[in-house]
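Hey, I'm writing a tutorial for new members on how sequence and structure tokens pair up, and I'd like a real worked example in the thread rather than a made-up one. If someone can provide the structure for the chain below, I'll link this post from the tutorial.
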Amino acid sequence: MKQQTIYIGIAAIAGLLLGYLLFGNLTSAKTEAASHDHMTDSESQMWTCSMHPQIMQPESGDCPICGMELIPSTSSDDGLSPDQFKMTDNALALANIQTTVLSDVQGDVDNTVSLSGKIAINAEANSTQASYFDGRIERLNVNYEGQEIRKGQQLATIFSPELVAAQQELLTAASMKESQPQLYKAVRTKLKLWKLSENQINSIETSGKVKEFFPVFANVSGTVSEIMSAEGEYVKKGQPIAKVSDLSTVWAEFDAYETGLSQFRKGQKININTSAYPQKRFEGEISFIDPVLNNSTRTVTIRATLNNRDGLFKPGMFVTGKIEAVDGVVGESILRVPASSILWTGERSLVYVKVKADEPVFEMREVVLGLRSGEHIEILSGLDAGEEIVTNGVFTVDAAAQLQGKKSMMNKTGEKSITPHENHSGVSVDKYIDEEDISTALEFSDSFEKNFKRVLRAYIKLKDAFVSSNARQVSNNANETLRYFRTIDMSDMGTTEKSLTVNSIEMLEAIIKTEDLDIQRAYFVDLNENMVALAINLRSVDETLYVQYCPMANNNEGAVWLSTEEDIRNPYYGDAMLKCGSIKELISFNE
């Protein structure tokens, strides 16, 4: 019995030893594996700043911008790259965002090239009505631009001491015309060169009286496009009084990209449509192709002369043209996308690609465009067949990218660059504008200054609508501001000035397309960067402008706006943080 107990004890000890050897090593292995996994997770963990999400550090610590303690980044859990961002299914549905999977099509699907442009005054039909003698304008009969005048109509009345002396010469020569006919003839010829008619000269000679005031008559019919003198002003011989344009013919000018220039020839027929008369179709013929390429837009002007005797076409009116391409591309695979999927920034053409088939994950992509055919545009590079792109709601997707601090239409890198700039008075301006937007003082024409002041008045109403957080009113005021922006002639602008103006127009168009206040405010950030850059370079302003700044707007990156009031009324937050902000600069230099 004692011996049996010993055997049982030995067996139990052996079992325990065997169990330790088997299961102890397994537990140790699991512990080691868990420790290894934890170390791997720790090594791959990235740390970011809650106030500045663009900051990514491999270790914990403080934010290099604001000094706040970094927090673990959750972006790695989504498996997204730094340029990708995700939208909610609810946001997609509300914005009616639609996508299309790209596929190659054959070149002979559509041989029509679409162009956009506007109606311009026919420069060949312009004339200048000038004074033919020195004097003072006693009365000016043309008072406003757009006034219709007829040939022979009196334009002005001028007092001219020079003409008074010439009349005295005529009366003296008339008394001696029998003895000195050549002198008499010379004096009459002199008066005719000053555009006095035969009847006027005969009237002076018959009456024997000198007239102090002489009328100036129009020598052409047309529309006054510019008043160039004022009542009471002294004018020199040949000085313009008014510029007159004959609008019985006008030019339709289109912008054609250099990649498609081989498709156009003089004499080609072009079908023209206008928004003003959507049911009418007009036909023209290409009469001019600009031999010089515009370096800033990479386009060439193509022109057609249109009959306008019915006055349907107004200079400045937007038009579209369709032309049958000279060289139809047949049999060659071409990648085309809907025109609605393209965002233009002046220098870049962008699309948004849906990078995951089963998730609303997007990424901005720059593309190179080819010819436009109907409602589709050829893609030369940047996209491949099989990729899925946003074709409807692209502005909403772009706004979502901006709100999440990702690359977007107005932000190449997802980060802002702050640079000082000097205005005309030499005062340093602490300005929050992309460095590439403005690097030198800008030069504006008198016409731009006049029209931009109207833009500013409409813009202030737009800013106030943002303060009131009224999305519908924001859209209405943005539309009014856009209307004034479109009156600005950009033909003689420098590259930077034109870029700022085009960007402003695009941001206003984006604001109008949505009534989501958060999205509107995201575009308002970019609009203000361009508006401030333009405003601080004006030679004069009608009233003091305040450049105001909120450090918490634009995802805590800060944003500016313009105001005519010294008190802060924040358009980015409205009543939520109405007084948040400070004045960064005054713009106050009146003529």
